[in-house]
Amino acid sequence: MVPMKMTKLLSFALLLLTFSLSNAQGGKKYKVHTIAFYNVENLFDTINNPLTRDDDRTPNGKDRWTSDVYKDKVSNIARVISEIGTEVTRNTPAILGLSEVENREVLEDLIKDPRLSNKNYGIIHFDSPDRRGIDVALLYQKNIFTPTNFSKHELLIFDDEDGDRVFTRDQLLVSGMLDGELIHVIVNHWPSRYGGEARSRPKRVAAAKLNKKIIDSLQTIDAKAKIFTMGDLNDDPTNASMKDVLKTKAKKRKAKGTDLFNPMEEMARKGVGSLAYRDSWNLFDQIVISAPLLDDKDFSSYRFYKAGVFNKPYLTAKKGRYKGYPFRSFSEGHYTGGFSDHYPVYVYVIKEAQ
After folding, report:
1. 302 partner at 20 to 30 Å CA-CA among 162, 189, 258, 354?
2. What is the mean pLDDT, run by run of 10 residues, along the chain of 354 residues?
3. 26 vs 46: CA distance, rounded Å
């Protein structure tokens, strides 16, 4: 464990991108980056895609999704991204997973926003077979992270009643160099709870099994692989998909070898959530990390520091049906000027500067 004096100094010093930390060997400098995930709640353009169910999100559709509304939505999402983690790093996320994006074009518009345009974000995106046309994606700052490999992994599941395939989101795997250090990021958006939690549970268990297969393949190559699996999992940290399939640990000290640590589990037990439904909070948005990121005695490479939910007051609805919930962008048949029905989540990673 890190000595108490060092822990206090670390908490204070994380207010700077690079900082000095006193220890037995004298002053040292550290670097910190934010790795985050955000479900952006149906970031659709205004153009009708005849191959997907996006008709509502068009100018003449039910949602009256006009160019002005779309531009405002993009601007709002860019504002949120521009602020995640900045209190500590003085920079936007180095790596950001996204869900509920319609296509690459909306991502291009997003990174061109004035709040993000100077960050030189790159995009990794594949079209998924989801019926609504929503995908997952990864944004990354090119001067910090260099992708070396990326691939999509199809989730094949079938309806128990009629046997038809359930078309849902692929899982996105991106491997690359974070300041010259190999890490792996998996971006997920697991099947929803439509039809009830119990009835839909097997679909998320299947998604977790696919995720575990991807993780196992990385750990077979390198048992010390540094892995971040993130996303809107539509399950809480204590559900079967997490505890029985991924076998996540709630305590850092219990995660060893190829184990996975879920920093969100303790937060969920304390009532912290990333979305609300019927006056109940859930922490469906999670970032789970592999055990090699947890060594707090050796900061010669990137290590996990802390996790959080980005829930600034402006991201919470102040009135209406969803008062106190995340300030969604669409409610009761009209555009609200809000952001998303989910809060973003994030982790900080730190390492000793050279």
Report:
1. 189
2. 40 42 53 98 94 90 94 98 96 98 98 98 97 96 98 92 90 97 98 94 97 98 98 98 98 97 97 95 98 92 97 96 95 92 98 86
3. 57
Name the amino acid, one letter, at 329.
S
How would you class 323 by CB atoms within 10 Å of its CB: exposed for 0-12, middle for 13-18, buried for 19 or more? exposed
Helix (H, G, I), strand (E, B) or coil at 301: coil
Compute the distance between CA of residue 174 and CA of residue 206 in angstroms, rounded to an integer: 21
**Exposure letters 54-84 (e unless 16+ CB within 10 A, then b):** beebbeeeebebeeebbeebbebbbebbbbb
Torsion over CA: 51, 103, 63, 342 (sign): positive
Whole-angstrom distance, CA of residue 185 vs CA of residue 174? 5
Classify the C-alpha dihedral 117-118-122-128 as positive or negative: negative
The CA distance from 76 to 70, in Å, is: 10
Q: How many domains does the chain have?
A: 1
Name the residue range of residue 296's domain: 4-352
**What does the angle CA 64 – CA 69 – CA 73 come to, to the nearest 5 degrees?**
130
Give the domain CATH number at 33: 3.60.10.10
Give dist(CA 194, CA 200) in Å, integer.
7
187: tokens are 């971006």
